[in-house]
Amino acid sequence: MKNELLLKALKGESVERPPVWMMRQAGRYLPDFMKLKEKYDFFTRCQTPELATEITLMPIDQMGVDAAIIFSDILVVLQAMNIEVEMRDGIGPYLPHPITNQSALNQVLLPDVDDRLGYVFEAVRMTKKELHDRVPLIGFAGAPWTLLCYAVQGQGSKNFDRAKAFCFQEPEMAKELLQKITTTTIAYLRAKIKAGADVIQLFDSWGGLLSPTDYQEFSWPYLQQIIDALSGTVPVIVFGKGCWFALQEMGKSGASALGIDWTCSARNARYLSGGQITLQGNFDPSRLLSPIPEIKTQVKQMINAFGKDRYIVNLGHGILPNIPVDHAKAFVDAVKEYGS
Amino acid sequence: MKNELLLKALKGESVERPPVWMMRQAGRYLPDFMKLKEKYDFFTRCQTPELATEITLMPIDQMGVDAAIIFSDILVVLQAMNIEVEMRDGIGPYLPHPITNQSALNQVLLPDVDDRLGYVFEAVRMTKKELHDRVPLIGFAGAPWTLLCYAVQGQGSKNFDRAKAFCFQEPEMAKELLQKITTTTIAYLRAKIKAGADVIQLFDSWGGLLSPTDYQEFSWPYLQQIIDALSGTVPVIVFGKGCWFALQEMGKSGASALGIDWTCSARNARYLSGGQITLQGNFDPSRLLSPIPEIKTQVKQMINAFGKDRYIVNLGHGILPNIPVDHAKAFVDAVKEYGS
Fold it and tell me: What are the DSSP calls for B132-168, one per residue?
């Protein structure tokens, strides 16, 4: 690997400057992405390895980030499990047949991942080839809890109240669904690693909607299963948005790094996670709308606060569609200028 | 006052059991409220003292809570400041002319609150009369930051990115707007107290969207100003949703109590707030969808975790519209049965 910053940071090795990448870095703020978006719908982009590869490489070539993350979506795992997922304009993900009872649950399959998700692994292989080992490639999956949110609610939501009601009223059914998602996710990620992914990131985007007690019941055990199953393969990064309350547990999980959102200061994050594990984050995505000189100042302050070692610079959530490209570039450049 | 539980808890005095009320307790889960909602639109309900009084009293009579909170909306303050606010079906609050530049900001007035918000004070006086001192009456206002979110974004939002961008790009304008809102809110709350409010609660519903640093810049100083201005009048409760990171500052602010959401455990809340101040919360509103026996068990566990003193039982955010009335009642009853 020509650029080993990310892998070094994940091993806890000292680096000259921390690595930097951005969640959703291959996305809607990039004009070239928008051109492809006009021509191909969402799942065509995900399911066509040539397109996924082209999109994945855009921020490497245009932003100069230190890692690639395969272009895909967390919901492809639900599709593979026989749950229909559409992407509707103005709504986002839409699942016409949400899983809200036992008979719907019985229709949820444990798929042959090579058969149903082969297009992702092909995209990984193709991207690895095109990358020529310039930077590591991150593969990812949604946390089982976050996928359950969509599977039960049927679409995005402010509080995913129907998904939570399902868990609270039918905990056994909820756990059967969570376990099916977990088992599929493990097979999916193993195949992704086999195809060439150098690092795995798990996204628990909706973990922060649960109380600490409910998180320990409906989210964390399934994430821990995945971490355990991938042990000895590649480094795993766990990002739970709003999950500051679970950082202690996460710090002892065997994960190589933890993602932090911008409501948790560097100091709190180091303290809560036990002080040893590599942390990743946590620039407020909206802060990329600040003037460029202020972005640069704040990035420097952020690195000083986290420390340059055991640290991966990132945003605290995905980059927003309305971020000017030169602001995103300034964020990346500020990291590269660090210490010089 | 016949029921002094809330006032005692706010003073830190020992009580037999903690008081209980629910945020949005006079709301859409109540069938009688829904009947009024069919007949009168949102602002008619707010602006007609007889209706506001009738709605405010519903949960006192039907749920048996230990406090009333005047039926109104945080956005009436913006209306009084010459900012148009509509309530649109399926959208919620909608502000056709958001404040996004200096000329719009110049149109924002510091109103004579008696002139523009007299209907609220009349509702407070009428409610106090109808209550016959059965329970204390809580008056409330939105935090200046939360009101700015609506004033600038123009409607509800997942991340209020336009409001945040305004603050980050035009901090001086943002602070001018925040100060205008603060000044108006102080006059508004003083008049509300004069009209008879026994307690004030400040709602910072969107404080948790800010980083700790930005919270200290764009939210907290204005809340502190309000707390200082009300010092020596009635007890003030500050509720910042998602603001666990600011509990230390809040604990030293002179507020009488702090609202806690369900992502912050009792133990963390006591630790972060300094261990002395009265806390209020933090049952996950979705958890009221659990079976009734489980609601009762969890309420008991929650009181045990917070302790019966210096504690006010509440939800961690507003009650959801789809909560069955008997589940809400079970929540209140469980508190009353505590220790017996």
Answer: TTSS-EEEEEE-HHHHHHHHHHSB--SS-HHHHHHHH
Distance CA A92, CA A78 (A): 15
| B chain contacts of residue A289, beta-carbon cutoff 8 Å | 161, 164-165, 168-169
The verdict on A168 touching B (C-beta cutoff 8 Å) is yes
Strands, DSSP E only, in chain A? Answer: 68-69, 86-88, 92-94, 137-142, 199-204, 236-240, 257-260, 278-283, 311-315
Query: Biggest alpha carbon distance in chain A?
Result: 61
List of E strands, B148-233: 199-204
Q: Are A261 and A241 in contact (CB under 8 A)?
A: yes
* A312/A257 Cα distance (integer angstroms): 9
Domains annotated on chain B, with CATH = 5-336 (3.20.20.210)
pTM of the model: 0.97
Residue A91 contacts B where some CB pair is shorter than 8 Å: no
A161 to B320: CB separation less than 8 angstroms, yes or no:
yes
Give the count of beta carbons closer than 10 Å to the beta carbon of residue B304: 11
Q: Is B132 left (phi over 0), alpha (psi -120 to 50) or beta?
A: left
Kindly report the backbone phi and psi dihedral angles of residue A205, in degrees, each rounded to the nearest multiple of 5, phi listed first: -65, -30
Interchain proximity B263–A245, CB inside 8 Å: yes
Q: Are B211 and A245 a contacting pair at CB < 8 A?
A: no
Q: Is the pLDDT of residue B284 over 90?
A: yes
Hey, is the C-beta of B321 within 8 angstroms of any chain A C-beta? no
Classify residue A289 by burial, with Cβ atoms within 10 Å: 0-12, 13-18, 19+. Answer: buried
Tell me the CB-side half-sphere exposure of residue A244, using CA atoms within 13 A.
Answer: 25
Taking the CA of residue A149 and the nearest CA in chain B, the distance in Å comes to 13
Identify which of B98, B120, B88, B260 has the alpha carbon closest to the alpha carbon of residue B184: B120
DSSP state, B114?
H
Q: Which tens digit of pLDDT belongs to each residue from A74-86?
A: 999 999 999 999 9
pLDDT for residue B340: 82
CA distance B165 to chain A (A): 6
Structure tokens at B69: 């909170």
Give Cβ neighbours of residue B151 (< 8 Å, ≥ 6 apart).
Answer: B78, B83, B95, B98, B99, B108, B163, B177, B181
Nearest CA in chain B to A263: B211
ipTM for the complex?
0.95
Within A96-198, strands assigned E span 137-142
- The string of pLDDT tens digits covering residues A169-200 is 999 999 999 999 999 999 999 999 999 999 99
Q: Which parts of A235-324 fold into alpha helices (H)?
A: 247-251, 266-272, 292-306
